[in-house]
């Protein structure tokens, strides 16, 4: 599914968080959304997921404006994974993943055979089949994040929007998750902090700064030393891995070196 | 896009693709099967019927099972020999409506607690602790004392207005943080105190001593004022409220993960929340209008039932209703006989049971 943003702006409490963002995400593409903390990534994702009504501009799914769509209709097209969706719940993992079937069920109906099959497949996809009967409370942060992704997959969406899904994951699961996202037919828009991870797995990158989209294109085109210095305020070296993906190495922020303590006088020993 | 909801979705193939060839539904989900649930539910319903029959018997004047059968037989026109008129009236006009009322109010309060705990994402939410019962009391007392319309419907209407205004005040005070703020219980207690004070003020300012005594007893929560006319109001409103809440089961489950995740699942969070708050206010108001503010039922019962049948609302809500009914029928019976012939307001007993549980939950959350 193609997701289009046309001149999106959104503000909260008088502060403009998203400023005049226009972008076009093609069907099946995996797009990384980059930017420092507070650059408007989460807000832009929420606008695109239909969870916030933009002050100006239009969100289109396959060319159709979605502002008049019901929440249910949107949920049948797009799944959204929050950054920290904490819950002190006793729900079993399979039931949490089963929440992804909500937009396909009557308001009170329980899961049917299709729902259960989809849930089982989604659990298998993220490697949580063995924990299906486990209580949500007993999961680690990483397992919860994977369960949320399984819940999103159970929604059988045309597009997946994820807000920093690799946050709680160890390296192995980060790589597995990115492979999972890029291996799908769905359109994927994923906010990420790890620039190298984004460069390696995303087809294209969007770079946000103070709510504005300041760069958009292939990883090699978007990630330049000058932009990283300007947007993230870091000195970074850009190299290329064996597959031709950019790799970012940080030199640390240019700051005065820490003062070295003089050696203690010999007598005090 | 010409969205045909039934069109095969690309991801359906994907999820069930060769990688995971038609992964069969996990056979025998760890939960109970539908048949087992039906049986369990029937048993619980039977337990309620038995409890109610037993509770009608229990009291200062014991008529025995045959006496109870004779009262019911007389009313059904079965041609049995009626009891002496005074005894018959005691059972039919006082005790039977009282037990029915206890069952209806118990079910209402338990479901209100379950719903409020999901909507506010707070394990301590309950109509009493959030000040809704106190608001309803103020409304009801205002109608009774000022004599605006002292019929059962008038008092219920006053209680409803009071319950809704306490919700309104709560929402106003929490407008910045939202309903799932951790401060909701504290704010609710403050709102409750305000309405309790208003009730006392209305009483002291305008009622005579007799009314004050009657109303005070009722404010502690007592089944004694239950009569057939109030039971009828309750019997109409309560099932409607319970069914409405049950129809929102999936939304209640989704709310566990917060507003955004729930909305992304296609749940109309704002509307569902408003609908459920109005339903809760109505259920609480109908209960309070007759029997006063009975606390902690909405706290005790949902926690116990969740422990037994799990947190999925489609299953939890019906059991909470049944368990709430059984619970209040028995606590009311206890209230009648514990210090007979004097009667303890049932709210005193539920509070004595509820406070330790409240502390236990606080402790479990690491706040004590």
From TrEMBL, chain A:
Top-level taxon of the source organism: Bacteria
Domain ABC transporter: 3-235
Stored SUPFAM superfamilies: P-loop containing nucleoside triphosphate hydrolases
PROSITE patterns with a match to the protein in the record: ABC_TRANSPORTER_2 (PS50893)
InterPro entries in the cross-refs: AAA+_ATPase, ABC_transporter-like_ATP-bd, P-loop_NTPase
Gene Ontology MF annotations: ATP binding; ATP hydrolysis activity
Keywords, ordered alphabetically: ATP-binding, Nucleotide-binding, Transport
Pfam families: ABC_tran
CDD domains: ABC_Iron-Siderophores_B12_Hemin
Name of the protein: ABC transporter ATP-binding protein
């Amino acid at each position: 599914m193609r997701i289009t943003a046309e001149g999106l702006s959104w503000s909260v409490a008088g502060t403009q968080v998203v400023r005049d963002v226009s972008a076009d995400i093609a069907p099946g593409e995996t797009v990384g959304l980059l930017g420092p903390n507070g650059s408007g990534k989460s807000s832009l994702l929420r606008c695109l997921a239909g969870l916030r009504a933009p002050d100006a501009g239009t969100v289109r799914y396959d060319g159709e404006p979605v502002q008049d769509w019901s929440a249910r209709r949107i949920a049948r097209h797009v799944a959204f994974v929050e950054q920290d969706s904490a819950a002190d719940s006793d729900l079993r993992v399979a039931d949490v993943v089963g929440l992804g079937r909500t937009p396909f069920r009557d308001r009170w109906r329980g899961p049917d055979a299709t729902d259960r099959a989809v849930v089982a497949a989604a659990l298998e996809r993220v490697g949580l089949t063995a924990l299906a009967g486990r209580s949500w409370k007993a999961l680690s942060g990483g397992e919860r994040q994977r369960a949320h992704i399984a819940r999103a997959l159970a929604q059988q969406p045309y597009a997946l929007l994820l807000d920093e899904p690799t946050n709680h994951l160890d390296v192995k699961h980060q790589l597995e998750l990115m492979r999972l996202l890029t291996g799908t037919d769905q359109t994927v828009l994923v906010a990420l902090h790890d620039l190298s991870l984004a460069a390696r797995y995303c087809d294209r990158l969007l770079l946000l700064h103070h709510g504005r989209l300041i760069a958009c294109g292939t990883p090699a085109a978007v990630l330049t030393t000058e932009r990283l210095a300007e947007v993230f305020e870091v000195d970074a070296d850009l190299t290329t891995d064996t597959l031709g993906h950019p790799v970012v190495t940080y030199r640390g922020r240019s700051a005065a070196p820490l003062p070295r303590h003089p050696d203690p006088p010999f007598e005090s020993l | 896009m010409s969205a045909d909801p039934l069109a095969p979705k690309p991801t359906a193939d994907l999820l069930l693709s060769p990688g995971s060839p038609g992964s069969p539904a996990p056979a025998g989900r760890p939960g109970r099967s539908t048949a087992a649930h039906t049986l369990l539910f029937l048993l619980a319903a039977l337990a309620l019927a038995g409890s109610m029959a037993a509770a009608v018997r229990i009291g200062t004047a014991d008529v025995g099972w045959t006496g109870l059968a004779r009262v019911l037989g007389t009313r059904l026109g079965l041609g049995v020999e009626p009891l002496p008129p005074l005894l018959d009236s005691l059972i039919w006009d006082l005790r039977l409506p009282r037990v029915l009322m206890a069952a209806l109010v118990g079910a209402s309060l338990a479901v209100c607690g379950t719903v409020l705990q999901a909507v506010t994402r707070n394990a301590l939410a309950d109509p009493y602790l959030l000040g809704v019962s106190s608001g309803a009391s103020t409304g009801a007392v205002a109608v009774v004392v000022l004599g605006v319309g002292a019929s059962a419907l008038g008092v219920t209407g006053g209680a409803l207005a009071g319950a809704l205004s306490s919700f309104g005040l709560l929402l106003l005070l929490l407008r910045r943080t939202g309903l799932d703020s951790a401060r909701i219980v504290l704010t609710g207690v403050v709102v409750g105190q305000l309405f309790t004070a208003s009730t006392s003020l209305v009483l002291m300012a305008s009622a005579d001593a007799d009314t004050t005594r009657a109303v005070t007893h009722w404010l502690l929560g007592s089944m004694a004022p239950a009569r057939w006319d109030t039971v009828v109001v309750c019997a109409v409103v309560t099932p409607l409220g319970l069914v409405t809440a049950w129809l929102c089961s999936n939304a209640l489950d989704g709310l566990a993960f917060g507003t955004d995740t729930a909305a992304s699942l296609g749940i109309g969070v704002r509307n569902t929340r408003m609908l459920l708050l109005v339903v809760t206010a109505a259920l609480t108001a109908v209960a309070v209008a007759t029997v006063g503010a009975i606390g902690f039922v909405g706290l005790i019962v949902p926690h116990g039932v969740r422990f037994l049948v799990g947190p999925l609302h489609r299953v939890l809500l019906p059991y909470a209703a049944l368990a709430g009914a059984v619970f209040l029928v028995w606590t009311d019976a206890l209230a009648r006989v514990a210090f007979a012939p004097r009667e303890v307001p049932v709210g005193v007993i539920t509070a004595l049971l509820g406070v330790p549980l409240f502390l236990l939950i606080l402790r479990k959350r690491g706040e004590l």
